[in-house]
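A quick aside before the break. I want you to see a complete sequence-to-structure record at least once, exactly as it would be stored in a machine-readable document. Don't worry about memorizing anything.
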Amino acid sequence: MTATSATGGPLPVPPGLDITAIENAVAALIVALTGLEPELVRPRYQPRPPQPPPADAGWCAFGCVAEAAEGVQILPERRDGTVPVRLVTHDRIDLRVSFYGPAGPVLARSLTRGLRVAQNRALLGAGLVFVAAGQAIPAADLVGAQWVRRCDLTLTLRCAETAALPIEPLACAPTALLTDPSAPTDPSATEGGT
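That is the input. The structure line, written in tokens, reads:
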């Protein structure tokens, strides 16, 4: 049985946006803005990573490196009870995006420049909003006994999610108003009254 404010106990709160939904949205954005084929844009952390493309091919790996709660709001129910109490969470998600191959820096620029256009940022969907792109940093990886050029950058996204909470309206509480019969009913009869 799920707890509510009427039954007591902890109230269940949904865990938030699934990492798979974030990965799918980011992969689709990278494909759209860089022109890479979908199979060349991969989540960085996979149980069974696929073979890397040849050293001269351009490709991308990305993954979440940090997630932080930036704020929480609790929105009250409507008086008529048609809208429940809602919990709104604001999370910041930092992604490390790495472009491999000789075209790595060009692909990184295509992504960051493309994100400056509002129409392109709207491609994110999944409740995600683009916040910032960090500096592109050139590096290299030893892949299959061969050095491969790499260009890393950090993308910062924000996600706002709303969840209904099982909090019963106060009007539904089985209570009665009790008054103290010895309390004065005339405000002027209290101390300091005139």
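Two observations worth writing down. The mean pLDDT is 83. The longest helix spans residues 19-34. We'll return to this after the break.
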